[in-house]
Sequence to fold (727 residues):
Amino acid sequence: MQNFRFIAVESAISKVPSKAEPPAKETSAYYGCNVFDRRAMRKYLSEETRRSIYETVERGATLDRNVANHVAEGMKRWAMDMGATHYTHWFQPLTGGTAEKHDSFADPRGHGESIEKFEGKLLFQQEPDASSFPSGGLRNTFEARGYTAWDPSSPAFVIGDTLCIPTVFVSYTGEALDYKTPLLKSDSAVTKATKDVLSYFGQENEVVHSYLGWEQEYFLVDKDLYMQRPDLVMTGRTLVGHDSAKNQQLDDHYFAAIPPRVLDFMRDLEYEAYKLGIPVKTRHNEVAPNQFEIAPVYEQANLAIDHNLLLMSLMQNIAEKHGFEVLLHEKPFAGINGSGKHCNWSLGTESGIGLMSPGKTDEENLRFLCFMANTLKAVYDNNDLLKAAVLNADNAHRLGASEAPPAIISSFLGQQVSGAFEELLKTKDMVKIAGKKGYSLGIPQVPELLVDNTDRNRTSPFAFTGNRFEYRAVGSSANCSGPITVLNTILAAQLVKFKAAVDKRIKDGTPVLQAVLDETRETYKAAKNVVFDGNGYSDEWKAEAKKRGLDCETSVPLCYNALDSKKAVKLFKDTGVMSQVELESRKEVFLEIYSKKIAIEGRVLSDLTTNHVIPVAISYQNILLSNVKNLKDIYGDKDFRKMAASQMDLIKCISEDISAAESLVDELDALDAKLRSAADGMGPAKEYHDKMVPLLEEIRKHVDSLEMMVDDQMWPLPKYRELLFIH
Ligand code: ADP
Ligand code: MG
Fold:
């Protein structure tokens, strides 16, 4: 019998690791060479033009249209010198990922003539045919217009022959159709609110930003094996597949040596990332086999997000060259760790003050406690919204599925900071916060260790880690703008409330810093329920969290109700980040994406079970049946019963799984047909969640059981042990 699977595995193993071109040793020789950064601007723009651009980037000043013409001209000359022939507005639709439409610089003039042209207005604004992007009812089809508009705070870059210009994407009537628009607005809102509070410390003139350092987790699988898994190709995850006997139980993959072929991929990736000015810094093996992580040095949130999106597409291209497929799905494999993208988020000033870092003086520590308490209160009041910003069909497999983190958003502070707050509740005065402690290991050769004032808690979804909060519930494929927009917005709104309360105390005669301290104490008291330092996986916590008023809902469609609740509408309106219509449209888009994803999984699994798995199971069953018959022919009725007993059991078990799988697939097909016949072609998201998802799980059990019974040589799909251990 032709053994297709075996051949594919062979070819995957025999692949010789490609030798990556060694880049120049010093990164300074090529870092940022594909970015229209200050170095490039100095060469291609006049000093006056540069000054206007810097004003815009640093202070958020609006750029003059005349200046734009100069910028466009310089940018075009730079890009053409870099070999670019085309330009594109690069934007971030709600479908995830990024989108682009390329136009040539060439401007044919007739009479056989053509010149290269790129004007300010083309840099500023474009009108891509936007009708195929989801808008959640924001755009009627007769008004299928969308505009992209230049975001000067994120630099343009060249990839291949194309100049890419980061842009926002809005509808004809100005509503956001993308992730970047609300993110930029949320950054302005939190910046303004922060400066107002900093005025109590005489620091209102500081330039404030929200910062983000993401940690991107991913799996690499061999491309040949990947291509033979229709479920991976179509849905990004394995819909069936029995556990591998060995997976992560020995904890031997985390931080282990990186396999050579993977290391080649990583080197190539880092090289390309550096050329685009993406400050990647850390690489290591993750917990699950064939799972890895890459993380940069943190940057201003807007830029960090553009860099993350760029990196995700770079990863796909570079993996291809190395014979890998990158899986960015949150849960490609059942039974082992999924992939997240921890978002390390903080507020800080350009002069280097970290507003979420403890300081040296009482005043600095008061500022720290003040921003901490306000963040905790914002998270407590809006934990439902924060969860809705990261939940989707894929991430739902990860959150709350007994792996970090649970689907209840609480915060871990660590002993020192929790202790300081508890102390604050008992006194009217300022409290001390312990700094880094010296810690001797008792080994003479080894110097004293400096231990952070936070310990670690792996199960907390929103953990304080010394100078930032780490939001760990974010999924690996996500655009971080969703959660960062929510974090910025809820903190902005909370700081406005805080300021009003402090002002009132001051008006009533309390000295300024005492007023800040008193209000910080009250804010923490009201937020305290969100602080949880224990085991987030335990059942007791689920019960306790409910009592504390935290949102414990796990159904994705129901969680989305937080997106346009009365509270959310007021919050986003007051901060100027999004209107009610924008929120409602977002919810509609997310529900639609949810339903479509589950529907696709349903169809793929139905096909896989009916056309791949069951025919093979029947063939194997036939082999067993004829063997049993032959035994009977040769050995006669009496002896054969004993000899064939276990085979006859196996035949029965195979039959049971086949018929169970068949009838469940019938049910699945009928449900799919019913939902598809709805007016909008897909029925309510709740039906997909409540009815289709459990059916997928049930079918999988039978298919996985068949995998363990059918001859390995005949099984039509690469197995977990191959997908996870071949690199
Ligand atoms: P971990 O120990 O959590 O795996 P990593 O070093 O992998 O830590 O990633 C931590 C991320 O947090 C990095 O991107 C780092 O630059 C970022 N980070 C550090 N300090 C801050 C800060 N103040 N604000 C935002 N991000 C920060
Ligand atoms: Mg981390």
Q: What stands out?
A: The chain has a mean pLDDT of 89. The pocket of magnesium ion (ligand 2) is lined by residues 215, 342, 470 (CB under 6 Å). Residues 374 and 494 are 6 Å apart (CA to CA).
